[in-house]
Amino acid sequence: MNSEARDLEFRKGDVERPHFEAVTTLSDSQAIRSVDFHPNGKLYAVGSNSKTFRICQYPQLNKIRNGQQTTAYPPSVLCKRTKHHRGSIYCTCWSRDGELIATGSNDKTIKYMRFNNETNQLVGHEMELNMHDGTVRDMCFLDDSSTKSRLLASGGAGDCKIYITDCGTATPFQAFSGHTGHILSLYSWNNSMFVSGSQDQTIRFWDLRVNVSVNTLDHERKDGGLENSAVTAVCVDPTGRLLVSGHADSSCTLYDIRGNRPIQRFYPHTAEIRCVRFSPSAYYMLTCSYDNTIKLTDLQGDLANELSSVVVAEHKDKAITIRWHPTDFSFISTSADKTATLWSLPPS
Hints:
- By secondary structure, the chain is mainly beta.
- The chain is built from 2 helices and 28 strands.
- The protein has a 4-stranded antiparallel β-sheet, with no helix packed on it. A 4-stranded antiparallel β-sheet has the order 2-3-4-5, with no helix packed on it. Strands 6-7-8-9 form a 4-stranded antiparallel β-sheet, with no helix packed on it.
- It is globular, with a radius of gyration of 19 Å.
- 43% of the residues are buried.
């Protein structure tokens, strides 16, 4: 049985919602916009509006689950850089091998640093990229296995272009045009394909081997597609078959990529959705919203039927970003309430 299904099995038939408990809470002086797990799951990086960048230790949940904890505690911070950017840190992401960590800011720059996976320390000098002319809203790494290069896709406000940077040479070598509004979300699920969501109400699919978008989903579709709402979040499941998008009108749309058709649109929240993420095996989906809540949606069964979404965590202010742990059934959420909180299921 999949570990995700096993973790929720004890709740099966229970009318109570799956109750995730706060394990650690990182507090800052300003809103926290970004977080990302290291691919090995042992660390996570956090970027804040206060310009502060931190790398934190993921706790040992087995100790917590043995009754050794009753309230959330601050995480162990292994690295802290104040004034890492000249503005707020909007996005943070690790490369797939964990050897690079990148941040983007409303100071219009991207910074990336090398990371030693054995010592858990940043090494060498940080690199700064200055090709954007507006806030860098999101980024994703693409690894080119043929050349062993690490590529970084980035987008945001300004010229609405998506830039591809070779991190080996710190050189932006490709710029994708097509969006007419700010790019709010980027997501990659393999070495060459990624997807973007924009304020222009469209979703575009991109392939590094092609200079234009290979598919566009927009509000003009007549078949129940994506109408009249900015695309604030996009994510693709690990198989590359299913896309979920979050929108400013509080809706989500599930889309069959291979069949090139929308499956359904539903409204799990009461305010703008800021982030969507499939669980590692895509049995579940998390969404977070400006209504302060994080909801879990069960994706097991017929996706065309009504989907069940329940609140599993809540902040005191707008929820901004969520990330699943790579292997454990736990997640981190960040918020305008100036916290980044790690949530996990209690022992069954």
